[in-house]
Amino acid sequence: MAQINPSILSADFARLADEAKAVGGADWLHVDVMDNHFVPNLTLGVPIVESLARATDTPLDCHLMIEDPDRWAPQYVEAGAGSVTFHVEAAAAPVRLAREIRAKGARASMALKPATPIEPYEDLLPELDMLLIMTVEPGFGGQAFLDIMLPKIRRTRELISKHGLELWLQVDGGVAESTIERCAEAGADVFVAGSAVYGAADPAAAVASLRARAEAATASAAWACGH
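User: That's the sequence. What structure does it adopt?
Assistant: Structure tokens below.
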């Protein structure tokens, strides 16, 4: 089943509690953490995640676009995140970090920037609960979807199937009604959407529409047959 994770990067930061409530029916709230080092932008950190976790019943999916996630990622679990994603390009010991995130009670996820191939990390997949394929360069919301990432999504789905893993495959960047079906057909089942949700007149309806499109595309996708 397709999961829709609205990105609060596109929400009104002065009204985060209200914006969290506005996306009723969302599976997770996607929280983009940027440190102005790993990516050229600065957003929010542990205190905001703590406050948001208290303000909503929707679980938080924290995407850490930061340096030294080995040090910082466990703090986001303690702050209330239900899923924590670190970038493999920034992690010193990704297996150890994934195991620590899981040991603290959250789902462990690893993200790949557009130029980072999946194949060198095939052996790490059993250590993860989710893999994030970035479909834009991380750092800013509102970017155009990179179609050249679709083959990478397909190859990743093939590796997940090859190993018989119950591993979620997330895409983030430019996901909208015009692109979500291609992502689902290629193998993604978790979709981060920012402006496509929070830029809509009715964010909750936008979540439902995106999910319907993704599920329709998944139903006819070759990878999902017998899944």
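The two ends are 10 Å apart (CA to CA).
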